[in-house]
Amino acid sequence: MSESLDLPILNLSDEFEKIRVLSSPNVANGSFGSVLEVYKAKNPSNVIDILYLAVKKYPQSIPSLSKVYNKSLKDLKHKHLVRIFGETTLSDGLVGLVTEAHPTNLRSLLNKGPEFGKPLAINGIRNVISQVLDGLIYLHMRKVVLIHLKPENVILDSLTPQVTMVDSKVKISDFGFFPEALLSDIKAKGGSNMIYLAPELKKSQPVPKIKPSADIFSCGMITFEMICGRSPRVTDKLSMIPNPTLQDFVRLMVKRNPSERIGAEPIFTHSFLRS
Fold first, then answer.
1. E-assigned strand segments in 3-125
2. Residues 6+ apart with CB under 8 A from 11
3. How many CB atoms lie within 10 A of CB 162?
4. Last residue of a domain, one of 78, 101, 124
5. What pLDDT digit, counting tens, does each position of 178-213 carry?
6. Is 168 within 8 Å of 159 (Cβ atoms)?
7. Based on the domain organization, do 160 and 252 belong to the same domain?
8. Is 24 inside a domain boundary?
9. Cα–Cα separations (whole angstroms), residue 183 to 5, 35, 71, 133, 186
10. What residue intervals traverse the membrane (predicted)?
11. 223-266 per-position pLDDT tens digit
């Protein structure tokens, strides 16, 4: 049985109404907990057409955010970031993070969409990645690094015959957790998440320094996956990308040496995104 979130404490009861969790069982489930309650926005945002309020319960192995850090997260407001409303204490004494969520993400499109197994349209790739990079520029300017950017954390508004990849609105989710704890969690679980993890962060010794360049590598791998229509493989070559401009765009982001990897601001001006 799920916990009950006391919305009035967060002053959100006028904005959200509770819906059954089972109606959207996969919303915002991830490394850092499961959804306990989901609330639908009474007045949908003009950025994401349908909003949900998710309460993600921290595992005991992961520390909750301090009040100071939590305040800095709530101050992060950008059209390409999900909203974080703060923490709430649950009846069992553990802490939950109250955050905006959405049932549609890039992974669901890549795995289940009509273009499954096929490269996505160039204009659709350009639209999604430009919005992701815009969000990364904002985060990196404020010294926030995701380190686990992946298709599951790129949420989209609902795709319909009227809303396609070319004009879909995008937000980044699951940012702002303690990066050291998150890195340990990713390495412990292994699997497909390691594909998007920057190579310098996969090392055990010396202890890797977490820098914004790690997110750029992840963004490059996501772009490659959108181009190929499948998850990247260690044997893949950039020469598989037939478009020279797009190939250069990805190459600049996936350089193994982080000091040679391009930053979010300069790659945002690349000719591929300006076409």
1. 16-19, 35-41, 52-57, 84-89, 95-101
2. none
3. 7
4. 101
5. 666 666 666 666 666 788 988 988 877 676 788 999
6. yes
7. yes
8. yes
9. 29, 21, 22, 21, 5
10. none
11. 999 988 787 887 788 888 988 999 999 999 999 999 999 999 99
